[in-house]
Amino acid sequence: MYHKDQIRILLVDDEPNILQFLEMGLRNEGFQIMTAEEGVSAVNAAQEFQPHVVILDVMMPGMDGFEVCKLLKRMGQMAVIMLTAKEEVDERVRGLTAGADDYMIKPFSFDELIARIHARIRNQFPQLLSELRIGPFQIDDSRREIRYQDRVLSLSATEYELLKYLVSHHNRVLSKAIILENVWGYDFGGQENIVEVYIRSLREKLEDREHNVIRTIRGSGYRVDIS
């Protein structure tokens, strides 16, 4: 876990409406934000701002996102998530070959973008991880330990990752597909019902018999409510 106000995100898109939407949403999440509307400005902004994560449009006038990505990757450790309306496999391969760490197709889910940002930070900036208290939960990544109401939970490695993911995205409905992607990984070949099995186990360990801690949102997924 980490403090979001430590995370710098550079947004690069030549569509003002998308840029404004992303800037407002990510600022509300607590991240530090800088924006750029074309490639050269993006490179200059990255040199000044030193972002942890870059959300990068592909199709822009002048220098396109592929070239920008190559230049950004030469600067140092930056996680690049490419956004594009092009969904062809060749385009995705080109983006990943240019150095992108992730690739999303427009239109996209804002919640999914947040989840991918968290994944990049966990994977590429482990030094930002710290102990964090969220409501009745206390998560200590260094000890791989979660306390609930000051009681240490006995969790398997997967249960730990799942509960950490649910709690860190509290008050959001998370679908089984999103949970699978972010807890089990992109290459997981199993079925979605594995999520139900692990949710049931977590509820037992939380003594959540009434499902008031981990709520089932029928037809949508699961949500941990923390005020």
Query: How many beta-strand runs?
Result: 11
CATH architecture verdict of the largest domain: 3-Layer(aba) Sandwich
- What is the quaternary state of this protein? single chain
> How much of the sequence is in beta strands?
15-25%
Net shape: elongated
| Adjacency order of strands in the biggest sheet | 2-1-3-4-5
Helix content: 40-55%
Account of the protein in words:
The chain is of the alpha/beta class. It folds into 2 domains: 4-127, Response regulator (Rossmann fold); 131-224, Orthogonal Bundle (Arc Repressor Mutant, subunit A). The protein is 41% helix and 20% strand. It has helices spanning 16-28, 39-49, 65-75, 89-97, 110-124, 157-168, 176-184, 193-206; strands spanning 8-12, 32-36, 53-57, 79-84, 102-105, 132-134, 137-140, 145-148, 151-152, 214-217, 221-224. The chain has a 5-stranded parallel beta sheet, with helices on both faces. Strands 6-7-8-9 form a 4-stranded antiparallel beta sheet, with helices on one face. A hairpin with a 3-residue loop joins strand 10 (214-217) and strand 11. The chain is elongated and about 60 Å long. It starts with 7 loop residues before the first strand and ends with a strand. The relative contact order is 0.10.
